[in-house]
Amino acid sequence: FRYYLSLPPIIRAYGTACLAVTTVCSLQLLHPAYIALIYEDVFYRLQVWRLFTSFFFLGKFSINFGIRLLMIARYGVQLEQATFDRRTADFLWMMIFGGLTLLVLSAIPFLWNPFLGISLVFMLLYVWSREFPNAQINMYGLVTFKAFYLPWTMLALDVIFGSPILPDLLGIIAGHLYYFLTVLHPLSTGRTYLKTPRWVQKLVRRYRIGAPAQVNSRAAAQPEQQPGTGTAFRGRSYRLSD
């Protein structure tokens, strides 16, 4: 229980929701069809909840479900605690942006997927792999490789074991789009187009979600070493060389 309370707020809430919804569906207390992303039901029957509930189902109890939950607990937690330390609003916006991107992608007929939970987890995994590209990953004690290749390795394993790869691909696309707009493009052009909206920052402050943002007086007094860079990718530009 102490470990659970020590988890950062956004990932703790998302992981709990995924576990709760998946458990309810696995126990047949709720049929997954009632929470699936079906745009006809959303627009013609006003079942708006489907836009949200589709992100909380990770499949019925199985080894794959356990792996996805562990990915949230490890990579999502490390992202929120390290890369987004004291930047809860930025992390929440990343999750919201990822969700919106996946909803748009799923509106394309050949990319439609009824459940986007696995895709959102893969987005977290992809962003983590770009933030910690040189971390060493030991896969089942058989092979060791850099974290940069982890999303593609997990996708390859899904292909080998016959799992659908569309959810993985959607998550990788959403993760790369976020990373491109907040890191790669601003670094090359000096312009940041994707910033955390004020309403997200106000929401976090109002409900006191996470630790308050830390103000670095030395950083405030001195200019950035990378001219033209935005706060969305401060201190992360060195990773582009990997």
TrEMBL record:
It is found in: Endoplasmic reticulum membrane. Residues 215-229 have a biased composition (Polar residues). GO terms for cellular component: endoplasmic reticulum membrane. The keyword Membrane applies. One of its GO terms (biological process) is response to stress. Residues 215-242 are annotated as: Disordered. InterPro entries: DER1, Rhomboid-like_sf. The chain crosses the membrane at residues 12-36, 48-67, 88-105, 169-188. The keyword Transmembrane helix applies. It is a multi-pass membrane protein. Keywords: Endoplasmic reticulum, Membrane, Transmembrane, Transmembrane helix. Belongs to the derlin family. May be involved in the degradation process of specific misfolded endoplasmic reticulum (ER) luminal proteins. PANTHER family: DER1-LIKE PROTEIN, DERLIN. This is Derlin. It comes from Linum tenue.
